[in-house]
Write a structure and sequence with these properties.
iron, 703 residues, four-stranded parallel sheet, five-stranded mixed sheet, elongated, Aspartate Aminotransferase, domain 1
């Protein structure tokens, strides 16, 4: 068997996404392994092996009570916090239904920044039990703190209220004592659930001294394994088991107990109670870690804005945004630097907002570009030191790629040359760049990408020759971008309604393959850019100018033009066609495909072992389709030839190399396998043979 290729060792990883999950501590992993191997009995069995298992179960429950300050009430081991939330909601709503309190006009109150597991559980059981209540989100202020007046107003008509101790995105900590006063003043008997998942290990809890009815916890958020958690239920709080049958957990939760998971919690509880242990750091130390990370981030991103106030937050979470820098770009380059963080919002450009930051009333750009950096109580100083160094590396790479503007006079040597495709969702914008002449034209600008293009112009000192539209009429946002770019680059602003410069030469002869008249031509470096038509124009980019040869059409930017007669009259068989919309992620197409004459194709189906062998062969071409800044931070050290060709530059790569690599094995590689899969499909469509991609991306190679 071929030895797998490893890009970077796992030990090099800086994991700063502990609010999502944590690594399992060695002593906890040992407890799990020991229990699985040696104490494998069923706690319900009466023989010695079963009694040994029962001891772990009972003792873990005793220690857990000490940790959360609950000598009274129930502590029930569950599969995790989600099960605890479901159980609490079912219990509260079942009790309300039995009392006959489920009539129209009642509310189910929950914090607007709650984990989605809470409102979804409320909606689910509200429908199944037909309790007829209205789900109502409790507003929060800009600090993420719950609106107490809103609670006081609506609580008398509530069937349940659900809040959280610490927010998973921002680390904002609610004042439970103040909340309790308001809740019990206006709803003394209303069941109250507090999601304590992010609180465990980050502050002291004395739940039995409160009137909190339900408190779910999860093991994997604090160095335990996944699949284990527990639920605190206050004495005399209404309770309905979610799982019945078998009588385990004193009848509160059926099913043979997850003893290895409970053994893990046993060890975790011991650590939390041991005042001499040095695994979990003090609040002062954790605060120092946060300050060091913030200082490094501010050095790397001088315009950084925090999305939460430290005075209301636990010290293990940093949520920030950088103006004009999408979270996707920061996450990707951090990942390449082996720093694991998460976006404060969804990663897809179709869902680009953080509902938590939206609920807090923060500006749109913060919600759309938030990054969450979170560490755990067991984090050590060495990890923080390494993280600070890597953050600087990542920021330097972003500057080299012109995604961050440097405050120095550095002249970065960008690799952009030729046709560059930028995307937002399924919409495409094209840059025509001549690297040596420092000239550029923009075709079909997208408002959401305007700032990115402006950064590139500023960073590379490009002279923008034109900003062109294929639409019949330019939109207001396009017009704004036109003015910004053209003025910034100092070019002639005299242009028609589609952005075509009035000074464009009128005596340019039409290129080969083009059988219709053109509206002159515009020089961009050593290429001619032609326009065909005015109502719904097509732009043609010629091959480099040669004194003795006629220009041919290498690229065509067709917008939404679909008229077959027109396209056939301006496109050659080898022209790369660049449409405005690309829903199927084809990147580019050609005339035969537009006419429905595309030949069938399929990727080479290669076993992982053979793929790893290919990566060790010098004749293999590895296309690293990550962005330039990702490649710079983590270059691929492989025996095979490696080229960095991001999807943004794939069109130009096809033009430059489509006749050079026809017989060589080609392996496309990216961070996760998504971009490489797109690239492999495109290369195969355009005649490249022996093309495959690493489906798991670098994550697979690093495993």
């Amino acid at each position: 068997m071929v030895t797998p290729v490893h890009i970077r060792p796992k030990a090099d990883e800086i994991y700063l996404d502990c609010n999502a999950t944590t690594p399992v501590l060695p002593q906890i992993a040992h407890a799990v392994s020991h229990t699985m191997e040696q104490v494998f009995g069923n706690p319900s069995s009466s023989h010695i092996t079963g009694l040994q298992a029962r001891y772990i179960l009972d003792n873990a429950r005793r220690l857990g009570r000490e940790v959360i300050g609950a000598p009274r009430g129930q502590l029930i081991f569950t599969s995790g916090a989600t099960e605890g939330i479901q159980t609490a909601v079912l219990s509260a709503l079942t009790a309300a239904k039995r009392k006959g309190a489920t009539t129209a006009g009642k509310y189910l109150l929950y914090g607007a920044t709650e984990h989605k597991a809470v409102p979804q559980a409320l909606a689910h059981w509200n429908e199944l039990l037909e309790t007829q209540a209205e789900l109502k989100a409790i507003p929060v202020d800009r600090n993420g703190l719950l609106d107490l007046d809103f609670i006081a107003q609506h609580l008398p008509d509530a069937l349940m209220i659900a809040t959280m101790a610490v927010n998973n995105e921002t680390g904002v900590r609610q004042d439970l004592a103040t909340l309790e006063k308001v809740i019990r003043q206006h709803g003394p008997d209303v069941p109250w659930m507090v999601d304590c998942v992010q609180m465990l290990g980050k502050g002291e809890l004395q739940l039995a001294q409160t009137s909190i009815d339900y408190a779910p916890f999860s093991g994997h958020k604090l160095y335990g394994p996944k699949g284990i958690g527990f639920l605190y239920v206050r004495e005399q709080a209404p309770f309905t088991p979610l799982i019945m049958g078998g009588g385990q957990e004193q009848g509160f939760r059926a099913g043979t107990e997850n003893l290895p998971g409970i053994a893990a919690m046993h060890t975790l509880f011991e650590l939390l109670l041991d005042r001499e242990q040095e695994v979990f750091k003090s609040v002062a130390t954790l605060t120092s870690y946060r300050d060091q990370l913030l200082a490094a981030l501010r050095m790397a991103f001088p315009t950084l804005e925090l999305n939460h106030a430290f005075e209301y937050s636990v010290p293990t979470t940093l949520n920030f945004s950088v103006p004009d820098v999408p979270s996707r770009d920061i996450m990707d380059v951090f990942d390449a630097a082996n720093i694991r963080v998460s976006s404060g919002s969804a990663c897809s450009s179709k869902v680009t907002r953080s509902f938590v930051l939206d609920a807090m009333g923060l500006e749109d750009w913060r919600s759309q570009s938030a990054i969450r950096l979170s560490f755990g109580p067991a984090t050590c100083q060495q990890t923080i030191d390494s993280a600070c160094e890597r953050i600087k590396e990542a920021a330097d790479a972003l500057r080299q790629s012109c995604l961050l503007i440097s405050d120095t006079n550095e002249d970065f040597d960008s690799e952009l040359d030729g046709v560059v495709q930028l995307r937002f969702d399924t919409q495409c914008c094209y840059l025509v760049i001549d690297r040596s002449a420092r000239e550029m034209a923009v075709i079909d600008p997208i408002p959401q990408l305007a700032e990115r293009i402006e950064k590139l112009v500023e960073c590379q000192h490009y002279r923008v020759k034109a900003v062109l539209s294929t639409e019949p009429q330019k939109t207001e946002s396009t017009a704004a971008m036109l003015a910004q770019l053209l003025c910034a680059s100092g070019c002639d602003a005299a242009r028609d309604s589609l952005g075509w410069p009035l000074a464009a030469q009128a005596d340019c002869s039409s290129p080969e393959d083009c059988d219709v008249p053109t509206d002159g031509c515009l020089l961009v470096g050593n290429r001619r850019l032609y326009r065909v038509g005015q109502r719904q124009p097509v732009y043609l980019l010629s091959s480099p100018i040669q004194p003795t040869a006629a220009a041919r059409v290498d690229f065509a930017f067709i917008g939404e033009q679909t008229a077959p007669e027109l396209l056939a009259s301006v496109l050659g068989d080898s022209t790369l066609v660049c449409p405005k919309w690309d829903e199927d992620f084809k990147v580019t197409t050609k005339l035969s495909e537009l006419n429905g004459d595309a030949k069938p194709y399929e990727l080479v189906n290669i076993a992982p072992e053979q793929q790893h062998e290919w990566l060790r062969r010098p004749e293999t071409l590895v296309l690293d389709v990550r962005e330039q800044q990702e490649h710079q931070v983590t270059p691929l050290d492989l025996p095979a030839q490696v080229m960095n060709v991001p999807l943004t530059r794939l069109i130009q790569f096809l033009y430059d190399y489509r006749d050079d690599f026809s017989g060589r094995p080609v392996v496309c590689l990216c961070r996760s396998g998504n971009r490489s899969g797109v690239a492999a499909q495109v290369l195969t469509r355009f005649g490249f043979c022996n093309v495959s991609h690493v489906a798991g991306g670098m994550a697979l190679l690093e495993s």
